[in-house]
Amino acid sequence: MKAPERDGVQDFSALARLRDTLRKLYHGRTPAAFRFQLAAVIIDLAIIAFFIATPVIQDTSSFLWLDYSVAALVAADMIARLLASNDMLRLMKQPTSWVDAFILLTLLMPSALANLGFLRILRLWSLSRSGALWRFFEMRGLKKWREASHAVINLLTFLFVVTGFVYTFFFRTGAGLEGYVDALYFTVATVTTTGFGDIVLPGIAGKITSIVTMIIGISLFVRLAQALFRPNKVFFPCPQCGLQRHEADAVHCKACGHLLNIPDEGD
C-alpha cells in the first residue's frame, strides 16, 4: 500500500534533481555551464535569424516544419527557465516572459496570427535582457560596453519590427525578398530622416507610420549616442543588495545605502 507514496517521493526527488541541474546550467559559472549558456545564445541567435527571414520564406513548402520546430525549441527553453528559477511566479510576471509567450503563440498559430508575425523579432530584445548574454561581456572585461550594447540591440529590434510591420501591411503585394528589402530600405531611410522620397507609404496610415518611425527612431539614435559617448551609469553589483546599475561617481548604493567602491576606468 505504500508503493504509490514511494513513487511520489521518487518523482519529487527526480524533479528536484532536474531543477538543480537546470539552475547550475542556466545560472552557474562552471565551464559546463558556460558551454551550455553559449550554446543557448547561439540557438537564440539562429531563431532570431529565422524570424527575420520569415517574411521571405513563409510561402515555401518547408516553412511550417521550421516554424513548429522553432516553437518546440522556444517552449522547451521557457519550461527549462521556469524550472531553473527560484521564484517561478516572479519570472512569469516579467515582460520578457510575456514576450516569449506571445512569440510561442504566433509560432503555434502561424496562419491565424500571420499579420503579427513581425513581432517575433522582439525575441532579440528578450535575449538582450538575459543574464547569460552579458555574462560573456563580464568574463572578457567588456562590462563598460553593456549600456551601448543595449542601445544597439534596442535600435536593431525597432528597425526589424518596423520593417516587418511595413512589409506586412504595405509591401505584401510585392511579396518575397524584393518586397522585404524595399520595406527595410524605407525603414532605414525614415529612421535616419534621409528622406529620399523614392519609396513612400500611401494614405494617412502610411504618413502616421512614417511619423511614428521617425520620432522613435531619432530617440533611439540619441540614446545610442549617449551610451557611446556619455554613459550615465556603470554596472557594478552592490555587495549588499545586488543592484547593478549606479552613477559613475556614486559613493553609496541608492537602494540600500551600502558603501560602494566603484573602480575608475583606468583601474
UniProtKB/TrEMBL annotation:
Membrane-related topology note: Multi-pass membrane protein
Residues covered by the Potassium channel domain: 157-228
Record-linked InterPro entries: K_chnl_dom, K_chnl_volt-dep_EAG/ELK/ERG, VG_K_chnl
Gene3D superfamilies per the UniProt record, alphabetical: 1.10.287.70
Signal peptide range: none
GO BP, one annotated term: action potential
GO cellular component terms listed in the entry, alphabetical order: voltage-gated potassium channel complex
Cell compartments where the protein resides: Membrane
Transmembrane segments: 32-57, 96-114, 149-171, 208-229
Domain of life: Bacteria
GO terms assigned for molecular function: voltage-gated potassium channel activity
Alphabetized UniProt keyword annotations: Ion channel, Ion transport, Membrane, Transmembrane, Transmembrane helix, Transport
Chief localization: membrane
Record-given protein name: Ion transporter
Provenance organism: Mesorhizobium prunaredense
Organismal lineage: Bacteria, Pseudomonadati, Pseudomonadota, Alphaproteobacteria, Hyphomicrobiales
